[in-house]
Amino acid sequence: MQKSEELLDSYATHLKEIMQLSEKTIKAYIYDLRKFFVFLINRSDVDSVDFDSGDMTSLLKKVQTQDIYAFAYHVKHVENKRDVTSNRRLTSLRSFFDYLGYVNLIDKKNPVESVERYKTVSAAPNYLNEETLNKLFDKIRYRNKYRDIAILILISNCALKASEISEIKISDYNGSILITPKKTIKLNDDCKRAIDDYINTERYKTGSEYLFSSQKNDKISVRTIQHIIKNLRVDSELKDNVTSKSIRNTSILRLIESNIKPEEIHKYLGYKKSLSLEKHFKRDISDDPVYLDLDKIKKK
C-alpha cells in the first residue's frame, strides 16, 4: 500500500535519477498526476479513499482506458484547458503508468497507450531581426551589467535555453570550451570575452558552484533570466515578442544558415523528433552526435 504523496515522491525520484528530467518537467508531471488523482478519487465509488491517506495503488490497479478518456474529457470540457494541455497530461499519465509497471505496482497493459491525442497546430516560431538584437545589446552594454551581457550572448550565440543557462556550473567552463552533460561548445571570441568579463568583474564576489548564481548563491532561476530579457525589451521600447525563446529561435536560424550539418544541429538542440527542427528548416534530420564549433557560424 502506498499513499499519494509517497507514490509521487518515489516517482519524482525516478524521473530525476533514472530519466534525468529537468526540475521544471518533473514539477509539471507531478502537478498533472495530482490532478488525475483527485479526478480518480472523485470518480471512484469507494468512500474511504482520500488523497492524503488512501491506498492509491489499489485504486490505480483498477484504472481502465475509459477512465483515461474520461479524464481527458474532464480536462478539456470541465477545466476548459487547451488541447495542448490535455495532451501534456496524457503524456504525464503514460509515463507514470510505465513507471508503475517498471516497479511492478501494476501488471497489465498501460491504459494510456491506446488513447489518442488531440490534434494541434503548432504556432510558427518567433524570430528577431538583426536591428532588434543590436538594440538589445546596445541597451545591455549601456547598463554595464556583465552578467546580463554574458547571458544574452549565450542565448543569441549558442541557442541555449534559459533552463540550460541556469544549470551551467563554473567547472563547465575552461576558458574556451563549455562542457555540459548534454553538449560541448567551442566558444567564439564574443562568448569567451563576455564570460571572462563577467567572471573577472562581478562573479568573483560569489562562492557559488554555478556560473550564474542568485543572491543566495544558488543557481540563477529561469524566471530571473526571463525578467532580464523583459526589462531589456521594455527599456529598449521593443515589441512583446522579444523573449529568451525568440532570441534562441533567431540563433537557431543562424545555425541553419551556417555550414554546420543539420543532423548536428538537431542533436545539439536536444530535439527528439526531426519535426522539431523542421519547423525552422524543412529537411530530413538524422540523430548523430554533435560537437558545436561557434567559429563556423556565419557572421551577420
From TrEMBL:
It comes from the Bacteria. Pfam families: Phage_int_SAM_1 (PF02899), Phage_integrase (PF00589). Residues 2-101 form the Core-binding (CB) domain. It is found in: Cytoplasm. Residues 123-300 form the Tyr recombinase domain. Keywords: Cell cycle, Cell division, Chromosome partition, Cytoplasm, DNA integration, DNA recombination, DNA-binding. GO terms for biological process: cell division; chromosome segregation; DNA integration; DNA recombination. One of its GO terms (cellular component) is cytoplasm. SUPFAM superfamilies: DNA breaking-rejoining enzymes (SSF56349). The keyword Ribonucleoprotein does not apply. One of its GO terms (molecular function) is DNA binding. Its main location: cytoplasm. Belongs to the 'phage' integrase family. Site-specific tyrosine recombinase, which acts by catalyzing the cutting and rejoining of the recombining DNA molecules. This is Site-specific recombinase XerD. The lineage of its organism: Bacteria, Bacillati, Bacillota, Clostridia, Eubacteriales.
